[in-house]
C-alpha cells in the first residue's frame, strides 16, 4: 500500500482520472504546504510576464517545523483572505466540470495554528464573509449564536456539530475549512469525524476526497462506506454505488439497514433486478429484510422493475406498515399509470387506520387527474383540508392541476387564489388547464398576470401561451411571444420551436412556420411532424407529401404520427398509388400493427375509393377496436355501400363493442345514402339509448339522415332538440328544406340563423341558392349571389355559379345564364356545363345543348349521361338521325349508359330494382300490380310519354318499356308489401323521367298514398295528384 493509493488497486476504471488531479484542487491539498526559510514569505507563483514559467532560483531551503503552514504565520489577516479566494477559484473550476467520482491524492499533511484560539474564531468569520452559498453562510452564522465557545480549543463534539450542519446544508467550502482545522487539532483519526467528512464529501459529489479518507483509514468502517454508497446513489451515480458495494463486500464489511436501501436504490435506477435479488438474498440471510426501511426499498425495487406481484407480496409481509410503506407502493402504482390499483391501495390504507400524509394525498390527487375522476378528487381535497395539509405547496399544485385537467376551472382558480406564493408550477397548471379546455382568452389573461407578479415564465409556460395564441389565431400576439423568446435567448429551443411552428400553422402563416423550421439548429422528428401537420391542416397537401419524402430521404426517421398525418393529406389528394407506397413502408418499418396507422390506412383507402383494400387492412389488423370499425363503416358509407356499413355495425355489436357518437354518425350517413328510413330510426334509438343526443355530430347526422330519407318533419324535430346548433346543423336543415322543395321555409330559416349570430359558410350559401332554385325564386337568388362577398365575405365558387346558372336556365333565361358563364373568374367546370345542358334539354335549345355537351365530353369523356341527354334533346325535336349518330358514337366509344336503379326499404331490408328486372322473388306479383295500375291509370286519363324513349321500336313496345322503369317496379313492390296508407320512399340513382313523374302523380291520387322519390337532384313528394317540385322542371 506504501507509495500508492489503495483505491487505485480496488477501482481500476478510475485510474485515468489521476492526471486530472492537478487541475481541480488547491496546491495545498494536492502536495501539502510548501515551506520556505522565512515563514512570513509566500511561495513563488506564476506571473503573466513569465508566460506560465516559474522563475528558477537556486536558493538554499530550510525546513520549517512540520506543523507550521505558511498561511498561519504572521500577516494572517491578509494571507488567509487571499488563500480562501484562491481556494474558491480552484474549487469553482472543479464544479463547472463534470463530476469526477474517484480521484487520487497524496496524503493530507497535518498542520497547526500558532494561536489556535484566535485563529479558529477568525476562521469562522472569514468563512462567513467569503462563502458564496447563502445557505451555508446562514448556517454557520447561526452557529456563532449557539452556546459554543470559539475562543476555547475546539473539541471533537464541536467539530462534529459543525460538520453535521455543513453536511445537512451541503456547505462544501466551510466544511473543507473545518476539515483543515480537524487535521490541525489532530482529530482526523477519530472515526466519528471521519464519517462526517466522508458523508459531507459524498453528498457534495467530491467522491475523490471521500475515497481518500476511506483509503487512509486503518480499519474498514461500515458507516463511512454507507455514506459513500449513499452519496453515489443520491447523486445519480448508481453504477459507481454498485461498484463501491462490491468493493465493500470484498473487504468483508457487512451491510446494515442503512447501507442496503442505498444499494437497492442504485439497483432500482439501473433496472438491475438480478443484482437486486442477490442483495435481497443477503438481506434475508442477515435478517435485515424485516426492517421497514429496507422492506420499503425492496418493494420499490420490484415494482419499478415490473414485478408488481412480488412487490405486493413483500408489502403484505411487512408486519407494521407505516404511512411510508404505503406511500412506497402507492407511488409505484401512480408512476406506472396503474390508477385502479392505486385507488384500491389508498382505500386499504384508510381502512387499516393509517393516516395519510400530504404525499399520499398529493399522489392520490394525481391518480384522480389520470382517471379524470373529479368526485374522488373532491374527496381527497376534503381530506387535505381535514388533515391540515391544504397549505402544502405540492398538494395545492396537485389540486390546481387536477381541477384544471378535469375541466372544473372555477375550483382550480379558487385553489390557485388561496396559494400564498404561487410558484411557476402553480401558474403552469392553471394556464395549461385553460388551454386544454379551450379557454384561451383566460389563459392569456393569466399569463399576463404571471408576468405582472414578477414570476419568470419557463418553457412550459410559454408553450401554453403559444397554444392559446394558436387556438385564437392571434398571429400578432404570437409574434410578440416569439420576439420575447429571442430576447430571452430561448428562440433556438427545440421544444418551443415546435410550439412556434404549431402556432404559425394554426394562424394560416405557413411561411413563418417554415422559416422557424428552417432556422432551428437541430430539426428532430417532432419538428418535422409539426411542419408536415401544419401543411396538412392548411390543405397544402402536396407540400406535406413532399416534406415527408424529403424527411425520409434525409434519414430522419418517422413514427405513427408522421404516417397518420401524411396519409390524411394523401386522402385529400386521393392519390391511391402513394397510399399504397406508404402502406408498404409501414409494413417494412413494423407500423402495420399500430392502430393509429391502420386506422389512417383504412380512412385513406376509403376516401380514395379503394374499399376492398380498406377491408383487407381491417381484416388483417390483429386488434380490431371501435375506431377501426368506425373508419370502415365511414368508408362504406362514403362509397355508397350502405348495406355493408349496416352489416358491419351488426358485427360490431356481436363482438360486444359499445358504439360511440362517431360510429352512430357514420351509420346515419349510410342510412341516408340508402334512404333507409326504418334502419335510420333504429340507429336513432341507439343514440337515445347511449345518450348521444347532446353530441353535435350525432345531432347533425340525424337531421341529414331524416332529410335525405324523405321525412323533413322528423328532420325538423331532430334539429329543434340540438342543444347548441353550429353551422353544420343549420346548413343540414336549410339544405334539407331546399331539397324537399320548401324554398321559402329554407330562406326563413337562413334569416333566423343570421339573427342568432351564426355566420354562414360556402356550403350554407349553396343550400340557400338551391332553395331559391327549387322554389323558382330568381330575384332572391340574385340578391344572395351578388351580396355574398359584401355581406358574408365569401367569394362565389364553382358550386354557387352552377346553382345560379341552373336557376336561370330552368327559368328560361338562357342568355343571362351564358352571360354569367362568360363572367366567371375561372374556367367553368362540369357542374356549370351540366346545368346548361339540363336547361337546354328543358327548353329544347339545340345550339346550347351541343355547346354544353362538347365541353362536358372534353371534361368528363367517360360519363355516358352527357350523350344520353344530348340524344334526348335531339329526340325531343324529332332529329332522329342525330339521335342515331349519338348512339353510334356511344357504341364505337364503348360508352355504356348507366342503368337506372332504384332502392326501396321494407322491414329493415333494402331491395334493389333495375329497369326490366325479373330476378326478384316476387316478380310475378310486382308485374301483376303494374298491369292493375295500368288499367287504373288509363281510366284516370294517363297517356304514356313515349317521346322520351329512344328505342327504335313500335309505340306499344315503347309503352311497355316505360312501364318497366326501375322506380315503377319499386313503387309497385311497395304497394304490395307495405300497410295501406303508409308512405312509400324510393331512391333513384338518376333523375326521375318525365313519364314516371306523371305516373306517380296519378298513382298517389288513385291509391291515396304519399310517394316520396329521391333522385340525384332533389326530392319529389307526390300527394293527391300533385308534386312538390318546381313546375318548370318538366316543361
TrEMBL record:
Transmembrane segments: none annotated. Keywords: Repeat. InterPro entries: DYW_dom, E2_motif, E_motif, PPR_At4g14850-like_plant, PPR_rpt, TPR-like_helical_dom_sf. Residues 31-66 are annotated as: Disordered. GO terms for molecular function: RNA binding; zinc ion binding. The keyword Repeat applies. One of its GO terms (biological process) is RNA modification. Residues 941-1029 form the DYW domain. Coiled coil: none annotated. Pfam families: DYW_deaminase (PF14432), E_motif (PF20431), Eplus_motif (PF20430), PPR (PF01535), PPR_2 (PF13041). PPR repeats lie at residues 221-255, 322-356, 423-457, 524-558, 625-659, 726-760. Residues 54-65 have a biased composition (Basic residues). Belongs to the PPR family. PCMP-H subfamily. This is DYW domain-containing protein.
Amino acid at each position: 500500500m506504501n507509495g500508492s493509493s489503495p483505491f487505485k488497486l480496488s477501482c481500476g476504471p478510475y485510474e485515468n482520472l489521476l492526471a486530472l488531479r492537478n487541475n481541480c484542487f488547491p496546491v495545498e491539498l494536492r502536495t501539502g504546504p510548501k515551506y520556505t526559510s522565512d515563514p512570513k514569505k509566500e511561495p513563488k507563483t506564476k506571473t503573466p510576464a513569465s508566460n506560465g514559467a516559474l522563475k528558477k532560483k537556486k536558493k538554499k531551503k530550510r525546513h520549517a517545523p512540520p506543523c507550521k503552514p505558511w498561511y498561519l504565520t504572521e500577516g494572517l489577516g491578509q494571507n488567509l483572505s487571499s488563500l480562501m479566494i484562491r481556494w474558491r477559484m480552484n474549487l469553482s473550476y472543479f464544479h463547472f466540470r463534470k463530476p469526477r467520482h474517484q480521484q487520487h491524492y497524496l496524503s493530507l499533511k497535518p498542520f497547526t495554528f500558532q494561536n489556535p484560539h484566535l485563529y479558529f474564531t477568525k476562521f469562522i468569520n472569514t468563512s462567513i464573509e467569503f462563502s458564496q452559498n447563502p445557505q451555508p453562510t446562514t448556517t454557520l452564522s447561526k452557529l456563532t449564536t449557539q452556546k459554543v465557545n470559539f475562543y476555547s480549543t475546539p473539541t471533537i463534539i464541536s467539530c462534529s456539530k459543525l460538520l453535521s450542519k455543513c453536511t445537512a446544508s451541503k456547505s462544501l467550502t466551510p466544511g473543507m475549512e473545518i476539515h483543515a482545522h480537524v487535521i490541525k487539532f489532530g482529530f482526523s483519526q477519530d472515526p466519528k469525524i471521519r464519517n462526517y467528512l466522508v458523508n459531507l464529501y459524498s453528498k457534495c459529489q467530491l467522491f475523490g476526497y471521500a475515497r481518500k479518507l476511506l483509503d487512509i483509514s486503518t480499519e474498514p468502517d461500515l458507516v463511512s462506506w454507507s455514506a459513500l454508497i449513499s452519496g453515489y446513489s443520491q447523486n445519480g451515480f448508481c453504477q459507481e454505488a454498485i461498484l463501491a458495494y462490491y468493493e465493500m463486500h470484498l473487504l468483508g464489511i457487512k451491510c446494515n439497514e442503512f447501507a442496503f436501501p442505498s444499494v437497492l436504490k442504485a439497483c432500482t435506477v439501473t433496472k438491475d433486478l438480478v443484482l437486486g435479488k442477490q442483495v435481497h438474498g443477503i438481506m434475508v440471510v442477515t435478517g435485515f429484510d424485516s426492517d421497514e426501511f429496507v422492506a420499503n426499498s425492496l418493494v420499490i425495487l420490484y415494482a419499478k422493475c415490473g414485478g408488481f406481484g412480488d412487490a405486493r407480496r413483500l408489502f403484505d409481509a411487512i408486519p407494521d406498515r407505516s404511512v411510508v410503506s404505503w406511500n412506497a407502493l402507492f407511488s409505484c402504482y401512480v408512476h406506472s399509470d396503474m390508477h385502479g390499483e392505486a385507488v384500491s391501495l389508498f382505500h386499504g390504507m384508510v381502512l387499516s387506520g393509517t393516516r395519510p400524509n400530504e404525499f399520499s394525498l398529493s399522489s392520490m390527487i394525481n391518480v384522480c387527474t389520470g382517471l379524470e375522476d373529479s368526485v374522488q378528487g373532491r374527496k381527497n381535497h376534503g381530506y387535505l383540508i381535514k388533515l391540515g395539509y391544504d397549505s402544502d405547496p405540492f398538494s395545492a399544485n396537485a389540486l390546481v392541476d387536477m381541477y384544471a385537467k378535469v375541466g372544473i376551472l372555477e375550483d382550480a382558480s379558487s385553489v390557485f387564489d388561496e396559494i400564498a406564493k404561487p410558484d411557476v408550477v402553480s401558474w403552469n397548471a392553471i394556464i395549461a388547464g385553460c388551454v386544454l379546455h379551450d379557454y384561451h382568452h383566460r389563459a392569456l389573461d393569466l399569463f399576463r398576470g404571471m408576468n405582472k407578479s414578477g414570476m419568470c415564465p419557463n418553457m412550459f409556460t410559454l408553450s401554453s401561451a403559444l397554444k392559446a395564441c394558436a387556438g385564437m389565431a392571434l398571429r400578432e400576439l404570437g409574434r410578440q411571444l416569439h420576439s420575447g423568446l429571442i430576447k430571452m435567448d430561448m428562440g433556438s429551443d427545440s421544444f418551443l420551436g415546435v410550439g412556434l411552428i404549431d402556432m404559425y400553422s394554426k394562424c394560416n402563416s405557413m411561411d413563418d412556420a417554415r422559416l422557424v423550421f428552417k432556422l432551428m439548429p437541430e430539426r428532430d422528428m417532432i419538428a418535422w411532424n409539426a411542419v408536415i401537420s401544419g401543411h396538412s391542416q392548411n390543405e397544402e397537401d402536396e407540400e406535406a407529401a413532399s416534406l415527408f419524402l424529403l424527411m425520409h430521404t434525409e434519414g430522419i426517421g418517422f413514427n405513427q404520427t408522421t404516417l397518420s398525418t401524411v396519409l390524411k393529406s394523401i386522402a385529400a389528394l386521393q392519390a391511391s398509388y402513394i397510399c399504397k407506397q406508404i402502406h408498404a413502408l409501414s409494413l417494412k418499418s413494423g407500423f402495420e400493427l399500430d392502430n393509429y396507422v391502420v386506422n389512417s390506412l383504412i380512412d385513406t383507402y376509403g376516401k380514395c375509393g379503394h374499399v376492398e383494400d380498406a377491408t383487407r387492412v381491417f381484416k388483417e389488423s390483429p386488434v380490431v377496436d371501435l375506431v377501426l370499425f368506425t373508419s370502415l363503416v365511414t368508408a362504406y358509407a362514403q362509397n355508397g355501400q350502405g348495406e355493408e356499413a349496416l352489416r358491419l355495425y351488426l358485427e360490431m355489436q356481436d363482438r360486444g363493442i359499445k358504439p360511440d357518437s362517431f360510429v352512430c354518425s357514420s351509420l346515419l350517413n349510410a342510412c341516408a345514402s340508402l334512404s333507409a328510413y326504418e334502419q335510420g330510426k333504429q340507429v336513432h334509438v341507439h343514440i337515445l339509448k347511449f345518450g348521444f343526443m347532446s353530441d353535435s355530430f350525432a345531432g347533425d347526422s340525424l337531421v341529414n339522415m331524416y332529410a335525405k330519407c324523405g321525412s323533413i318533419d322528423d328532420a325538423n324535430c331532430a334539429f329543434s332538440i340540438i342543444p347548441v346548433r353550429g353551422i353544420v346543423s343549420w346548413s343540414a336543415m336549410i339544405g334539407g328544406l331546399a331539397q324537399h322543395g320548401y324554398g321559402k321555409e329554407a330562406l326563413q330559416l337562413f334569416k333566423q340563423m343570421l339573427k342568432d349570430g351564426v355566420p354562414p359558410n360556402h356550403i350554407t350559401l349553396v343550400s340557400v341558392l338551391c332553395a331559391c332554385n327549387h322554389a323558382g325564386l330568381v330575384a332572391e337568388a340574385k340578391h344572395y349571389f351578388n351580396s355574398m362577398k359584401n355581406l358574408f365575405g365569401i367569394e362565389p365558387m364553382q358550386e354557387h355559379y352552377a346553382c345560379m346558372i341552373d336557376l336561370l336556365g330552368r327559368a328560361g333565361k338562357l342568355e343571362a345564364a351564358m352571360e354569367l358563364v362568360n363572367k366567371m373568374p375561372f374556367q367553368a367546370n362540369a357542374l356549370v356545363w351540366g346545368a346548361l345542358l339540363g336547361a337546354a334539354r328543358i327548353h329544347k335549345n339545340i345550339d346550347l345543348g351541343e355547346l354544353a355537351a362538347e365541353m362536358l365530353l372534353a371534361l368528363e369523356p367517360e360519363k355516358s349521361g352527357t350523350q344520353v341527354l344530348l340524344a334526348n334533346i335531339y329526340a325531343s325535336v324529332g332529329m332522329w338521325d342525330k339521335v342515331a349518330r349519338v348512339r353510334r358514337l356511344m357504341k364505337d366509344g364503348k360508352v355504356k349508359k348507366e342503368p337506372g336503379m332504384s332502392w326501396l326499404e321494407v322491414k329493415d331490408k333494402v331491395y334493389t330494382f333495375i329497369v326490366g328486372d325479373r330476378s326478384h322473388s316476387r316478380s310475378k306479383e310486382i308485374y301483376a300490380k303494374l298491369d292493375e295500375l295500368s288499367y287504373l291509370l288509363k281510366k284516370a286519363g294517363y297517356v304514356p310519354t313515349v317521346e322520351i324513349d329512344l328505342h327504335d321500336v313500335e309505340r306499344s313496345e315503347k309503352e311497355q318499356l316505360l312501364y318497366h322503369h326501375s322506380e315503377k317496379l319499386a313503387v309497385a313492390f311497395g304497394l304490395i308489401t307495405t300497410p295501406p296508407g303508409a308512405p312509400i320512399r324510393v331512391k333513384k340513382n338518376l333523375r326521375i323521367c318525365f313519364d314516371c313523374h306523371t305516373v306517380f302523380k296519378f298513382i298517389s291520387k288513385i291509391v291515396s298514398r304519399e310517394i316520396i322519390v329521391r333522385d340525384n337532384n332533389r326530392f319529389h313528394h307526390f300527394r293527391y295528384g300533385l308534386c312538390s317540385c318546381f313546375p318548370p322542371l318538366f316543361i
